[in-house]
Amino acid sequence: MKRACLLSLTLIVATAHAAEELAVPDLPPPSVVRQVLERVPSVVAARAGIGMQEATRKRLLAGPHETVVRVTGQERDVRAAPTAQYREWDLAVERTLRLPGKAALDGALGEQGVTQARLALGDALHEAARSLLKGWFAWLKERSQAALWEEQVALLQQQLVAVDKRIHAGDAPRLERLAAQAALAQAEANRAQARFRAQAAATELMRRFPGLTLPDAVQIAQPRPVEFDGAYWREEVLAHNHELAAAQAETRRARLALTRAEAERIPDPTVGVRAARERGGEEHIIGLTLTVPLGGAARAAAVDASRAEADMAAQREAVVAAKLAAEAENLFHGAQAAYAAAMAQASAAREMEAAAALAARAYALGEGGLSGVLTARRLALEARLAASLATLEANEARYRLLLDAHRLWAIDPDEHDHAPKQLPDVPRGQKPQP
């Protein structure tokens, strides 16, 4: 029974994950996103940084001290009677020993460095994902503008045909054909410019993200309102923000470094074994050596510097937290405003398109002048262009909020093998129960 329930739950979760991917048809597939982001130079460099910090951790665990071998050879010349010459040597093996507790602190510092490197990788992936999202929608915007100008050229070509019919019927002056041709030529020029901008955006996007293929057709999703309130999204964004996590990790590292500097007030002793041969072998010496540095003002100054660095790190963390909280709030309110603007622009576009269609039909039936038709078509096109941009901006704003909350793509180094976190189905304005 338990196994059946577990299987059912797994199928439900898998279905939910599949539904989430189908809900974003105007984005590249998550698997492609992950592969593309891994090739970004900043991500490659950040991943190499983990290897560097792993080596640093090993170095810190091994400690800064090494075994020292000291060999001395000398010749003793005794001039007092009876004169003699002796060949002598001195051999010493010494090692500085870390005092108890210092090795643990060094290991903790090494582990903290690895943690910070992993956070740097996560931040690099996240920044690359932001850049990909921005570039993707820049391409979509230019592409949609080009498509609308294609439609406008087709409509003006149809309008030119209608003008010719009225001229042949004697219902319109030939001057109207010149006006229709001028409007068509201007639309064709705008179409050419829009095509160039779309191609330039596509080229830049593919060069910045090698391996990314752009589809021939993209189904633009309808804008969706942002669920929950600003406080909820602020908490979600801050909980997954790599910049804040890196600032917190830097504060922990600075505090560890302060503790390590305080431990260094007591110097590490150096112990050794010494063997010597003197007077040509008549004397053999074996002994132990102990060297203890006497700490001075330099060690105290190092502690003061580490304490100041820890205070600075804590203040930087507070600044980053405040900045990111404000950014998260702005993301939420920006997504809300973009959705409202998209709805208003879509309504205006529908009204303007209806007015343009009525004007064109009236002209085809012999009523009204061409100038009114061209004006109506121009206003309708402007409204459609604005509505298209507003729709894409609303989707981009919502996706950016989901991306910062780690609900869009599974790109974190510790969670890339898992599907994106799903939004719980709860009434708007309420927080989901854990």
TrEMBL record:
Lineage: Bacteria, Pseudomonadati, Pseudomonadota, Betaproteobacteria, Burkholderiales
Protein origin, superkingdom: Bacteria
Localization, UniProt: Cell outer membrane
Coiled coil segments of this chain: 175-204
Region (Disordered): 414-434
Protein name: TolC family protein
Entry-linked PANTHER family: OUTER MEMBRANE PROTEIN TOLC
Chief place where the protein resides: membrane
Keyword check for Transferase: no
Signal sequence, renumbered to the chain: 1-18
Keyword tags: Cell outer membrane, Coiled coil, Membrane, Signal, Transmembrane, Transmembrane beta strand
